[in-house]
């Protein structure tokens, strides 16, 4: 069977069937980052690796500084998804021998700029030649306070669903210039009890069903309330991917307090309630808010 017939989620599910992981593992594959025990009793160790591939995540003509920025910011967005603090990074660079040294130097300038934005130190990595497209893989380690990390699986029936910022902006190049919502995520978990959270990397149409499935719930959204980026349409906001905004679930009881506090703390960043988590129902009518009828986001291998 070809990978295109399986898709990313099913492939990962099949690969991860096997012996149980160590008891020291708090969160493993299936969440945005791995979380494991550390000698420090107050914090847990967080690990994440991500990559960008030429002709998949960036065009060959893209500014290498922006490519480096994106390569570093992608795993940092996953740190935002679980409200963790990044500290150190390893960079693996796989490029053709015909690639210019100037391109590589500009790429690393972008990597360094992105890392310094959140106080991350690039401490090593690896290089390799290839006959194919360029690949930049970044692995990041950091920490999160025990009891503070947020998974996708904690959503509760009736929770409100919120997204930060605006969706559908990748068409205008935002996927090369985004800033992960680490500061916003840390503020959220310090001041509110967030039940479930993730970052929108593959699009609302792919990522929201993942959060709902992890929480063993369904969802309903109001498509007309989706916050659209300039020039985007509703289907762009659902399907285009690479928004790197936060999607999170929180109790309805906290809605008004959250909205007031958010406007005060982040007056320039939109926060929008787009729907809620709900119980599965076999009698549900096939409304447009049914999770199965949302246009899909980006899925690798499809």
Please write out the topology:
Blueprint: H1 8-15, E1 25-27, E2 34-37, E3 43-53, H2 64-82, E4 85-95, H3 101-117, E5 121-129, E6 135-145, E7 160-164, H4 182-191, E8 194-199, H5 204-214, E9 218-221, H6 234-239, E10 246-250, H7 255-265, E11 271-278
Parallel strand pairs: 4-5
Antiparallel strand pairs: 1-2, 2-3, 3-6, 4-6, 7-10, 7-11, 8-10, 9-11
Offer a few descriptive terms:
302 residues, alpha+beta, 60s Ribosomal Protein L30, Chain: A, Phosphoribosyl-aminoimidazole Synthetase, Chain A, domain 2, 2 domains, six-stranded mixed beta sheet, five-stranded antiparallel beta sheet, 27% helix, 25% strand, globular
Structure description:
There is one protein chain. Helix 3 (101-117) links the parallel strand 4 (85-95) and strand 5 (121-129). 27% of the residues lie in helices and 25% in strands. With 302 residues, it is α+β, with helices and mostly antiparallel strands. The protein contains seven helices and eleven strands. The protein has two domains: 3-145, PurM-like, N-terminal domain (60s Ribosomal Protein L30, Chain: A), CATH 3.30.1330.10; 160-293, Phosphoribosyl-aminoimidazole Synthetase, Chain A, domain 2, CATH 3.90.650.10.
């Amino acid at each position: 069977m070809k990978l295109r017939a399986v898709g990313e989620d099913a492939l990962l599910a099949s690969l991860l069937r096997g012996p149980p992981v160590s008891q020291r593992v708090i969160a493993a594959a299936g969440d945005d980052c791995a979380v494991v025990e550390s000698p420090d009793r107050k914090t847990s160790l967080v690990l994440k690796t991500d990559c960008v591939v030429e002709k998949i995540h960036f065009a060959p003509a893209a500014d290498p500084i922006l490519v480096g920025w994106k390569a570093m910011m992608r795993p940092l967005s996953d740190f935002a998804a679980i409200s963790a603090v990044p500290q150190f990074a390893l960079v693996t660079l796989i490029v053709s021998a015909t690639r210019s040294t100037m391109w590589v130097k500009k790429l690393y300038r972008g990597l360094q700029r992105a890392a310094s934005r959140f106080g991350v130190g690039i401490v090593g990595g690896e290089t390799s030649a290839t006959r194919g497209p360029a690949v930049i893989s970044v692995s990041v380690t950091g920490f999160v306070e025990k009891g503070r990390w947020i998974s996708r699986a904690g959503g509760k029936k009736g929770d409100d669903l919120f997204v930060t910022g605006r969706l559908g902006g990748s068409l205008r190049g935002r996927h090369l210039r985004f800033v992960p919502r680490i500061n916003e995520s840390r503020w959220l978990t310090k001041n509110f009890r967030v039940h479930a959270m993730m970052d929108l990397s593959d699009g609302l149409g792919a990522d929201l069903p993942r959060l709902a499935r992890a929480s063993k719930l369904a969802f309903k959204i109001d498509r007309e309330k989706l916050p659209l980026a300039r020039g985007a349409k509703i289907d762009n906001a659902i399907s285009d991917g690479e928004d790197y905004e936060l999607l999170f679930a929180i109790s309805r009881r906290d809605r008004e307090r959250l909205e007031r506090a958010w406007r005060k703390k982040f007056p320039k960043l939109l926060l929008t309630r787009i729907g809620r988590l709900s119980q599965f129902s076999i009698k549900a009518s096939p409304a447009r808010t049914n999770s199965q009828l949302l246009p899909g986001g980006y899925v690798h291998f499809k």
